[in-house]
């Protein structure tokens, strides 16, 4: 059986390799980076790399997982500045918009690197996002901040899709790089997203006559 110290060392080595891979991807790009490059920067042998990862694709997948975990941790911190759901989701939207700006300004990242390191498989990322927002929405149901019949999973998916669009598509209407952009994004989310989760809205009569 492996001792606790051996398990800890294995984890440290794996993290060392992932960190080295990030460094290589930034310096050489995803396509040009080799296992030799990663091993050299990590200070380990190629055989050690293969003890933890079967190949470069597996390393890239691990980097993507590491990046998304860090992303959610940072977004959680941003959301913690809000006391109610409306504020928390607004902070999340602002965080995502600012993350897009930061990545866009990082000259050492090419588009392929952004896609592979931060988005992973789209379906997997969407599932992760829904799971991330579910506790916030469920808690809001308990406090009465949202309507009692709100479908938490569906609402989480809908909001996640809004965030994906904020991250991937600059707005043709509002300048996201403007100093006042955070407040504009927050207002957009409050008016068109969060309030859609609250209260019942009047519905058209089912038997209304159709226009001829």
Automatic annotation (TrEMBL):
Q: Which residues bind DNA?
A: 34-53
| Keywords for this protein | DNA-binding
GO MF entries: DNA-binding transcription factor activity; transcription cis-regulatory region binding
Q: Which residues form a coiled coil?
A: none
Determine if DNA-binding is one of this entry's keywords. yes
UniProt cross-references to Pfam families, sorted A to Z? TetR_N
What residues does the HTH tetR-type domain cover? Answer: 11-71
Per its UniProt record, what SUPFAM superfamilies does this chain match?
A: Homeodomain-like
Tell me which PANTHER family the record gives. HTH-TYPE TRANSCRIPTIONAL REGULATOR RUTR, HTH-TYPE TRANSCRIPTIONAL REPRESSOR RV3405C
Protein name (record): TetR family transcriptional regulator
The organism named in the record is Mycobacterium gastri
Organism phylogeny: Bacteria, Bacillati, Actinomycetota, Actinomycetes, Mycobacteriales
